[in-house]
Every structure is written in C-alpha cells, then in structure tokens.
Amino acid sequence: MSQREDAKAERRRRIVAAARALIRETGDAGLSMRAIAARAGVSLTTPYNLFGSKRAIVVAVLEDVRQFQDRFAELQQLDVIDRIFQAVSISMTYYAQDEAFYRPLWTEALDTNGKELRTTLSSERRYAFWRGLVDEAAAAGAVLPGLDADLLVRSLERVFGSAMLSWVLGAIPTSNLEATAGLGYALALRGATVPERHPAIEARLMGYQRELLRLPKAAPAA
Amino acid sequence: MSQREDAKAERRRRIVAAARALIRETGDAGLSMRAIAARAGVSLTTPYNLFGSKRAIVVAVLEDVRQFQDRFAELQQLDVIDRIFQAVSISMTYYAQDEAFYRPLWTEALDTNGKELRTTLSSERRYAFWRGLVDEAAAAGAVLPGLDADLLVRSLERVFGSAMLSWVLGAIPTSNLEATAGLGYALALRGATVPERHPAIEARLMGYQRELLRLPKAAPAA
DNA sequence: GCGCTAATCGAAACATGTTCTAAATTTTAC
DNA sequence: GTAAAATTTAGAACATGTTTCGATTAGCGC
Hints:
Two copies of one chain form a homodimer.
Chain A: H1 3-26, H2 33-40, H3 45-50, H4 54-65, H5 69-72, H6 80-97, H7 99-109, H8 124-139, H9 149-168, H10 177-192, H11 198-214
Helix pairs in contact in A: 1-2, 1-4, 4-7, 6-8, 6-10, 7-9, 8-9, 9-10, 10-11
Chain A binds a DNA duplex through helix 1 and helix 3.
C-alpha cells in the first residue's frame, strides 16, 4: 500500500477509535463530529472526506467492534436451527450486556436523519454469516422447498433490525431485547421451515413468550 | 370545552394542516419547524408548546390522514387470514400510490434523531385494528393455541415497521414495498398458525417471492 | 531534488431542532 | 370590570451535521 493510503488508513483508524472512546465515555451526548475530530487529532473536514457522514463512522465502529467470531465458534456442534437461535441470543446478549455502549451506538446507526442515508447497515460479512446459517438449514432439509435463501435472510435481518429499532426507541426494555428478537425469529423460522421442525421451534416460541409475559408489558413497537 | 382549549385545538389543527401542506408541496426539504410555524400562522415556540417536537407533529399528520376505514370495509367478507393480508396490501398500496407524500412523512416519523423519542408511533386505533384481526383469526382457530395475541400483534407491527424503515432508507424500491411486507407477514403468519392454514399462506408466500425475484435485487435491509 | 497532485487544514457559513427570555395578549375567576 | 393566570409571541441563542473555500502540506513520478 502506498504511503498515502497508509496515512489515510491510519486517520480512519484514529477516527473510529475516537468515536468508540467518546461513546464509551459520554454516551450519546458527547458524540459530535467536532468532538470526534478533535479527539482523533484531525480537522472537522477530514471525517467527511474519509467517511462521508457521521452515520458512516458509527457504522464503522459497529462493524469494527462486532467480533463475535470467537463466540460463534461453539455454534458448529448444534442443530442447524438451534444454531440460528443461538446466534441471535449471542448477538442480543452481547448488546444487552454492554447497554451503555451499544444503545448509543445503535441509536446513531439507525438514525435516518440525513438525506443520503444509503449507508449500508448490513455489511457483507454480516450477510454472509446469516446466509451461511440459512444455507446450512436449507441443505439439511429444514427450510421449505422453493423458498429463496436470499429473501429469507433479508426477512430475518429485518426482524433483527426491527428489534433493535424498538430497543433504541425505548419501546422495549433491554431485559426484553433477546426475547423480543427471539420471538420474531421463532415466528419467521416456523413460517419458513418444514413441519418436522415445528415442535422444536414452538418450544422456543413459547419460551420467549413466557419470558415476555413475565415482565411488565412492553410499549408498542415502532 | 373552554374557550382556551378551543383555541388550542384550533392552533393544533392549523399546525397539522400546515405540515401536511408543506409535505405535499415541498416533500421532505421544506418541512422545517420554522416553515410549519409560519404557514400555520403561529410563532416558532407554539408547535413546541402544543406538540413537543417535530416528530410528534409528523406522527399527528400520519394519524390524521390514515383514514383507511372505508377501504377496510370490504375485509369483512374474506377469510380470517386473507383479511390480514388484504389489510397489509391496502396499507402498502395506499402508501405506494402516493409515494411523494408518504415517503417524506414516514421518513420523518421514523426519525430517531431527538433525545426524547418516546413518541408512540403505533396509535391506539391502529393497535386495536390489528388486534381485532388477530383476535378473529384466533377465534376461528387459525392461530397456534397458547400464542399470546398481544405479542403476536406486536410482532406483526414490527414486520410492518421494518418494511417501512427499509423503504424509507431506500433499501427497497416502492414497487417492492407491498411484496416485502407481505413476505414478512406470510412468514410470521405461517409461523403463528395451525397446519391447516399453511397451504394457503404458502401460496401467498411464493406469490410474494415470485414478485420480489422478478424485480432487480433489493438492497440489504436495515 | 522538483514540480504536480491529492489530501488536509482552519475557519467560516448554513440550516435546522430545540430552548430560553421577557414582553404582550387573551381567557378566566371573582 | 378588573386582577390574576395561562399562553403566545418575537427574538435571540445554542448545538449540531454538513458544506464551502482558500491556503497549506505531504507524497508521487520524474
């Protein structure tokens, strides 16, 4: 890599690090472009040159920090459907456990404020991961024949996204995040699978339901 | 009602009308608080007194304009599940047909910008409507026994919301809005119903899928 | 080493949502 | 009718995301 690109990458890294540190220290409040730039030791214009928008920076932080790889390792030995639920559980638990960091992060990431909001939220890596799980489920004969894997993955991503949005909007408490997402996945997965898989999924469905009914009623969804 | 409250209500009405007119004329661009206030003939502070935030005003416009009642009348004669799909179709078609108006509206409504975003997006009326459909489906024995109606409705609302969000973010084109939402509903409903209902729902599922696969691939979901 | 190119910088500017202040106005209660 | 209370008003202010612009700096090919 040329020295020029090298310096760019270094600035990029510093900007992402600055944003991460600011969220960590001040939550949503202190996360302004001016603060990020100052913290990264660059001018206000540079983040715009390198990322284009505040949202893009936040998404970069989200991508950067999302190192679930090790946690996902144990998935291999599970049933092909259990694996999906397990992945959801891991993700949501991960966010819930460090709420002070991830809620501001997702709040900014889901901010639809700007005009040019084409910033892809779902990364290639992320898509590939879920696509892999769905493909394996399909290969195992669990998925309804004829159902398009791509469309199914996108539907599941939307279930994921809507749970995050509800969380960010305050419609569901952090303690309900996993169960809310899980219930959405259970419904969609029971809807997407062959009958033999239904009993197991129904068990999960009812488990999540029990959890949600135990706690104070959640506010309406977005 | 006291004269004072009367005047307040009148101002409220004028503010909502101003916002509606501005969206109609200028789309998203011209919809600033200053513009709304000027158009309504009130000072900038008044909308904040009466609504609290820009988002609340937009939600009020959305509630005000959402008069699907007449269009929903024909639902009565349909099968209890078909009714739900029909309601989705009516809603989405309604938004798609007047995209220039409803896209800016939903863009603002889903804006998570501000701090106090507790503004309930899902109104009582809206919830009651979908709850009614779900309750009827349950009464007809279509819904999986033991599944909580409230949680199911909220899950379906999230499917709805995520389709709108994808639309607003530009992840799916307007021409795909109905099919995207429909596919999400089909998955969740197949997941929530007894096996006897599955063939009919699968037919819809495949119908939506066919429609989505026909058009250019949609961008990733939010 | 030298010019060219690309990138950053510093600073200002703009639009906007929101809040605050004190003055003016209108409704209500007596 | 008049005093008190509640609201609106005008205007400024603040924080913020984003853009613009001219000046400056640093790396690249030669």
